[in-house]
Amino acid sequence: MVVTLLVAILAVGGISPSSPDVQRPGAAVPLVRLKPADPEMRRLIGEGYGRSTSFRELVDALHRTNAIVTEQFGMCANGRFRSCVTNVAGDERTRNIRIKVNTRTTDNRLIATIAHELWHALEILADPGARDPESVLALYRRIGIGACRQGLSDRCETEAARTLESRVEAELSR
């Protein structure tokens, strides 16, 4: 069910591995559902939206959901991870997702990392039952890879998020 819902969200959003990379440097970012916590995060999201088709499609897909996604700078696990989803809360009407990103890297890498975490937000939103930390962890035990899926770690990752991050970074490098 999660995969079916995610595929539906992405199909509506137009995100696919074959989307052409058309640069729109002056593109205005809609910030209805996506809430950058400060001007620098807003700048990075705007730059990603204007320079990467995949980033733009991801943001546009998020704007068709029932969530508010807040992106902020901060440390995850005392700096051991470069980014993380720190909180998920809500009900059937709306969900709130908070994401943190560590600033210790280049702008292109930060934008790709933001895209990675926004992909995780879409994964969470594709599962209507993922409304709190426990249900989100259960989701990643099903769709995650490595030690998380095996129940050996709470540090969860998906291959799809990694793939999207690499694609955004490649688009930004052009």
Brief account:
This protein is an alpha/beta fold. The chain is 48% helix and 14% strand.
Describe this structure in words.
With 174 residues, this protein is α/β, with parallel strands linked by helices. The chain has one domain. The chain contains seven helices and four strands, in the order αβααβββαααα. It has a four-stranded mixed beta sheet. The N and C termini lie far apart (36 Å). The N terminus is likely disordered.
SSE blueprint and pairings:
Layout: H1 2-13, E1 34-36, H2 39-51, H3 53-62, E2 67-73, E3 83-90, E4 95-101, H4 107-125, H5 133-143, H6 146-149, H7 159-173
Overall mean pLDDT score? Answer: 86
Coarse shape: globular
The beta-strand count equals: 4
Q: Largest beta sheet: what is the strand line-up?
A: 1-2-4-3
**N-to-C SSE string, H for helix and E for strand:** HEHHEEEHHHH
> Count of helices?
7
**Low-confidence regions:** 1-23
Structure classification: alpha/beta
What is Rg?
15 Å
Quaternary organization: single chain
Main sheet attributes: strand count, strand direction, barrel closure = 4 strands, mixed
Percent of residues in helices comes to 40-55%
Strand content: 5-15%
The tally of domains stands at 1
